[in-house]
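Support reply, case 0932

Customer input (verbatim):
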Amino acid sequence: MTRPPDGPEETRVSEPFSIGETGGTPRRAFLKLLAGGAAGGVLVEILAVAGCGGAAPEGPPTVTLPLEDLPPGTRLVVMLGETPVEVRREGERVIARSLVCTHQGCTVKWREEENRYRCPCQEAYFDANGQPLLGPVSKPLPEFPVTIAAGVVTVATTLQD
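Our regenerated output:
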């Protein structure tokens, strides 16, 4: 084995450190490492809450269904988030209408024999187009935008004006 030449170069061997050492340097390095790790963990958590990194945040809910599952004249009730929505096909046109009464927020039901919607909470009625007929309601049932592409119907959450 050859020994390095004597001279200005020295090889330092670090001694293992213990947390209770009084020399200060290894303890200070350990505390810096600990503080840096904690700060890094907080930063990762802040970025996760802010939506940075990781999986993309979920967008607003949508409903999709094959157009063939909705023959003309069909009324289908789906949930758009927590909102019951009637999807109805009239010829090649598809309409999506909220089934939440605009007066007290109860769920209205379509009454085929009467050709109108009925709210069970205050006996309010809406016509086949969602316009108020009777009772304490003054606003129509809102509609949601619908797109049809490649045989797929998509109902979005943004209400139409």
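We compared this against your earlier run and they match. Two observations from our side: The chain has a mean pLDDT of 76. Residues 17 and 25 are 9 Å apart (CA to CA). Please reopen the case if you see a mismatch on your end.
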